Amino acid sequence: MTKRKKYREGSIRTTSFDVAALAGVSQSAVSRAFKPGASIAPETRDKILDAARKLNYVPNSIASSLTTHRSNIVALILGDLHNPFYTHVLEAFGREMQDRDRQLLVFTVNEDLATDDAIMRLLRYQIDGVILTSAQLSTQMVGMCHNRGIPVVLFNRYIPQSGAFGVRCDNSWGGRQIAEAFLRAGAKTFGMITGDPNGTTSKDRVSGFVERLIENGVPRTAIRSFEGNSTYEGACDAVRRMHADADGLPDAIFGINDTMAMGAMDTLRHHLGLSVPGDVMIAGFDDIPEGARLPYQLTTVRQPIKRMVRATIEHLNLDNPGQPIDLTHDQPIRGHMVWRKTVPGDAPPEV
Amino acid sequence: MTKRKKYREGSIRTTSFDVAALAGVSQSAVSRAFKPGASIAPETRDKILDAARKLNYVPNSIASSLTTHRSNIVALILGDLHNPFYTHVLEAFGREMQDRDRQLLVFTVNEDLATDDAIMRLLRYQIDGVILTSAQLSTQMVGMCHNRGIPVVLFNRYIPQSGAFGVRCDNSWGGRQIAEAFLRAGAKTFGMITGDPNGTTSKDRVSGFVERLIENGVPRTAIRSFEGNSTYEGACDAVRRMHADADGLPDAIFGINDTMAMGAMDTLRHHLGLSVPGDVMIAGFDDIPEGARLPYQLTTVRQPIKRMVRATIEHLNLDNPGQPIDLTHDQPIRGHMVWRKTVPGDAPPEV
Question: Which residues cross the membrane (chains A, B) (predicted)?
Fold first, then answer.
């Protein structure tokens, strides 16, 4: 017989009735105290949690999930932890879910494990919803979740025709603001360091940026695009390729996320011995705290993470499962320009 | 009736027998295909997973966890996501657990939610083990996990007399190497920027560092300590306090993690206009990839994350629950010096 088994059989299980007796409340009050979102007076809840702690009582969510079909577990599929933006996203979801007494089952997806496979694994658990931050997802997989009544919300992206709801910042608007900032500062030639070519986030930032430049008469030949793989290292490499290119470095570089903008800055300054913004101006996107540090002082577009996280949770509809969600709210959320030191001059008006 | 309920009642549930029939194998082979660590030929497993995909079949881990007392879920309690070291730790655990077909239930602990509270919440789920990276944990809580047969392993720390196993790098050894490097480079006065004063990690790095300096005749008055709160911002502030102090800046600063060493460098260079290592030499600890970037080139001690993660999983004993663990292996794992540009001169021999 294993030690584990011995422990299980040897312990006398405290029940909710014991806790109710000690706290001087009804058993149903004890249930409510442990149920997320249930109506209960804070003093009563504290009294019950106190009694539960004294008695080592913990309700068994797993057993109750079989009857309620609710586990209070939400799956979060993270695609890219190398970008600090997603660390901040994970932290924000962790905090907001804990406030709602829900837990995050976290999957990190890399090349070895496709998102579809991750969801296949997830479906073995009784989960109340799926939040997805990686770009690839088949419509078949969204269908499998739907068939099980599990809502899927995409974060920081959307997948056209996937049937999954996408919460995102207004990326195209942000791209336009960066273009405007560069134009006001006198830039004539432009480079973009792009991310996942299949991701809507990168595409929308690029299209807003290019659109605004074209509107202002910039010839298409003065706008070049370099793949940066969404990473710091990819951006370092992209700047080296720009520099080696016949056209040389442009006046202004848009890193479509801050991590790439930081890689571009470091390569310009420490590898090529150039000045930012003196020789080349730079802007990023996301407003990660790292970009605000002394060596960077990066001009960027802030993603409204808190509002995006709350919108995601709202669309998971955790308290009213199965209720139809109003899809007319599927609008991008507008962030705002954060003006620092990597583009010369003053903040232009928003366009 | 809710939409969710309708889906559940309306769908015809595929069973493992349907999958067995399509794949041309026994029903027990199907069970084994979905059981982590079970013996099954890879071709057979692939055939079964293929059939399962075609039939939209997913085993219900929650229901089976009630009979097996195993959910294949391991809880990871993360204390400090602001330190990129823990992002890399999360990624490493995610990958290693997925390789073993286990999932991570992730808790982020902040001031609002104590570790004890996080574990109380965790215990509602059928979890197979707890990995803890935050410093505070009561012996009562370790006892509650033990009573339920749930192993608790501390990562990057230990808590004396807690009864929980601690996996860690040899922090004291690392502190000694940094002291030796500074001494060889000619430093006479020393500053330390420390982390959590209750954490064993910070204490051990500091004690190894101070020990080696004292052994070499450095007077205690030439070694000063400043609280940096384990964060980049805390270290920036610590350097400003050192600078404002009557004794002024020391010859060498040891940031007891890389994030703090990076904050110290940025403040010296960009706020005080000094050179690193010309005016002040710097070393860190952890070897996060960010410290290797062009502007930093930080000399540091590498924590052997992969070996530490594997040792942690080994001590969770997931495949043989309840089997006693050999505690004689509770030895710190030695990392190694990573010699870059923030301490002048060549790498000294290890001490």
Answer: none
